[in-house]
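Input chain follows. Return structure tokens only.
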Amino acid sequence: MKIITVSSLKGGVGKTTLSIYLGQAIAKLFPKLKILKVDLDHNNNLTDYYLRDESLETIEGNSIAKYLTGVKDLDSILTTTGFENIFVIPATPKLSKTAVGLSWDAGLITRFRKHLRNLKFDYIIIDTPPALCLELNLGIHASDLVLSPIGFSRWNIQGFQEIEEVVSNANESLENGKIKILPVRTMVSEKKSDKLDELEISFAKTFIPKSESIASAVDQGKPLTEKNSFYFEQLAKEIK
């Protein structure tokens, strides 16, 4: 199993887009693998992409908040999607309020990491909120790799440094295994992508271009065209 968490403190950099289409790229390249998406963002855009035809009752009943509050086990809230071998644990806007009430539970981060690793999946991809909060810490502490999308903005760079610090703190608390972090240039033109390469940051070789057709596919809950899926497939190969 490989657990990948997608984290950024800046909105508009394609965090959820990366979470959605990286998983689909892995499924396309390696069709026998089972993939789980975990939505830890109360904005629940990943949930809306995969489960927009599901009832609110089903989504609420299978939400990650049910696990976090001890109502249900993780394996009981796995939700099927319209994509073969891709499952989702959804979130709703109530997650934000739920997480605030759980800040006292010091053992939750450790339990979440352990319980995720007991599930029978080849890849787990976690989408996190753009804030230094419990949900982001849950996602990062559970992961093997943190992908941090970075756009062309000085505040994106500062946000990445904050994510780096969370990863560093998480590694200090782990007995076995170390979490790696990989910044990814996202939602940028090729020219601006080259400009980001001038920074003293070891980016992934792959970059995700800014594209209205990619944004439209997310909004409509559709897969990408072959042309656009190529970028996510290249990233999937790079991090395999």
